[in-house]
């Protein structure tokens, strides 16, 4: 795999048990403006009890289309309807 992210492979990112343990597709990605954190989820609503922290490399290894988001600006999100859809990138208007 050709690494495209400027973040190192072992950067901690947020995801959920749905994605890691249940194999649900990643349909929502956030690159948070306030702290630069990455979030990779099945949907935009996340139950805190289902949260996990994993490496950026491990999450990209689950879905190599995430490499298309390497340049997602801080404060932006990327969404798609299903795993076969293209990513739609836009400013995260829900951020304070």
What does this protein look like?
The structure is a single chain. The protein has 96 residues and is an alpha+beta fold. The protein has one domain. It is built from 2 helices and 6 strands. It has helices at 17-20, 56-62, and strands at 12-16, 28-31, 38-41, 51-55, 76-79, 88-91. A 4-stranded antiparallel beta sheet has the order 3-2-5-6, with no helix packed on it. A two-stranded antiparallel ribbon has the order 1-4. β5 and β6 (88-91) form a beta hairpin. The chain starts with 11 loop residues before the first strand and ends in a 5-residue tail after the last strand. The relative contact order is 0.26. The model has no long low-confidence stretch (mean pLDDT 94). This is DUF2185 domain-containing protein.
List keywords for this structure.
96 residues, alpha+beta, four-stranded antiparallel β-sheet, two-stranded antiparallel sheet, 2 helices, 6 strands, 27% strand
Major pleated sheet: 4 strands, antiparallel
Radius of gyration: 12 Å
- For the largest sheet, list the strands in their spatial order: 3-2-5-6
Number of strands: 6
Low-confidence stretches: none
Estimated helix fraction = 10-25%
Overall average pLDDT: 94
Shape: globular
Distance between the termini: 35 Å
The structural domain count equals: 1
Helical stretch tally: 2
Please state roughly what percent of the residues sit in beta strands, choosing from under 5%, 5-15%, 15-25%, 25-35%, 35-45% or over 45%.
Answer: 25-35%
Which structural category do the helix and sheet elements fall into?
Answer: alpha+beta
Order of helical and strand elements: EHEEEHEE
Organism: Clostridium intestinale
Protein name: DUF2185 domain-containing protein
């Amino acid at each position: 795999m050709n690494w495209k992210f400027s973040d190192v492979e072992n950067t901690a990112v947020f995801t959920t048990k749905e994605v890691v343990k249940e194999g649900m597709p990643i349909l929502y990605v956030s690159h948070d403006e306030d702290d630069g954190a990455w979030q990779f989820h099945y949907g935009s609503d996340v139950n805190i009890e289902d949260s996990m922290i994993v490496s950026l490399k491990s999450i990209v290894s689950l879905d190599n289309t995430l490499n298309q988001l390497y340049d997602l600006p801080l404060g932006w999100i990327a969404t798609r309807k299903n795993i076969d859809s293209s990513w739609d990138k836009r400013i995260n208007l829900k951020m304070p």
